[in-house]
Amino acid sequence: MTNSTITPDALKKAMKEALVETLTEQRELFAGVMAEALEDFALTEAIKEGQQTEIVSRTDIFETLNR
């Protein structure tokens, strides 16, 4: 078995080409992954914000929702 070496520049170029090809051919998959990431980020931010507010009882929450 022979070992072949690839230069860092050649590896970088190959990786870029593979990424571009994947993104163009798997557009829906990429959009789904990005949507999930954005949802996770938004949820994390909402949790952080919620930790800074006062605690509200469960009863108060359901009363508000049922209006």
Task: Name its key features.
76% helix, mainly alpha, 67 residues
Description:
- The protein has 67 residues and is an all-alpha fold.
- The protein has a domain of 41 residues.
- 76% of the residues lie in helices and 0% in strands.
- It is elongated and about 70 Å long.
- The mean pLDDT is 91.
What is the H/E string? Answer: HHH
Distance between the amino and carboxyl termini: 74 Å
- How many helix segments? 3
Structural class: mainly alpha
Low-confidence segments, ≥5 residues, pLDDT <50?
none
Instruction: Estimate the strand proportion.
Output: under 5%
Tally of strands:
0
Helix fraction, binned, reads: over 70%
Mean pLDDT: 91
Main β-sheet description: none
Give the overall form. Answer: elongated
Radius of gyration: 24 Å
Summarize the structure.
By secondary structure, the protein is an all-alpha fold.
Please render the helix and strand layout as text.
Elements: H1 8-25, H2 27-51, H3 58-65
